[in-house]
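Revision sheet: structure tokens.
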Amino acid sequence: MKRNNFEIENNTITVKNRLLKAKMEALNRVGLFLKERIKETAPRSKKSNELAAKRGYGPLHDEVVYWINKKKELKLYVTKKGFYGRFVEFGTKKMQAKPFINPIIQQNEQNIKKIIAESILYHFLYIIAELERVTLVLDVYNYLLKISRKKHL
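Predicted:
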């Protein structure tokens, strides 16, 4: 729409879609990150040692999955094949709890925040670049990301 030699362009749909994409990417990256950390630390039973030697992991390791529901929330769980994972995590009357999911989430809180911030920052800068038609912003983002990674190493 043009008014008084100015052109007004509505980009709300573009921005909304990009922010949704940023959220979904952040959730996927966090889900994958947590899944890998949980797989590394999930307890192994004596019976699973032989299987672990053959496959590299015990049954619980293979059954940790994540998904994003319709409300765009990240869900981590152990599948039916590893149904006893909930007993290991929370314990029973006869067995003491040996949490292997919640501690990983708590220990990696800063890493999770960093993953989310990186995803949102990338897409936010992409929006700016798209709206301004400036690619320089993405170069600045990549430079800042490179610097931040060097500091964390």
